[in-house]
Design a protein that fits this description.
two-stranded antiparallel ribbon, mainly alpha
Length: 167
Amino acid sequence: MEKKKIIVNDYFQKNYEYFLTEKIGENFDERFKPELTPKEMLELGVFGGKYMNDCKNEFPKDWFVNAKLSKKKDPSINYFKIDASTSLKYWQEKGWIYHEDPRGWFQWYCRYYMGRRCLDDQRQIKRWIAMKRHIAQIKNNCFFLELNCRKKQRQALLHWAYDSRKI
């Protein structure tokens, strides 16, 4: 695949450049098997609808056709109608934000899905793998497909591309 240059100009980044080196949705690290695409996540309702409001020029337009978006954070937009997020400031204080992806993990995932590969890939994939502990907690404490059980954990899993509606 020929490299495609992307230039980002949004609220968080001005003239940030990166290259797509893989085909969209392909050639992922063998350990990284997200159950949801970024488009599916946006359509289900994640991050209170606030996450990607000014990123529409960077990603495919069809990601936003049925996306649940809001000008301000609104947990009722989330699939499980609950707030399962911490603030960006909290993430920054924990050192979880990579400078090229100032919005955090989901921004990294969107760009990875589109075909960008970067120095932060292994760290982010390890963080994604670590979220599996929440799947075990749901399986150990809820009946199968009891979607009202542990709604906050289920919503958090959706934020990490795990489809908690299947457990």
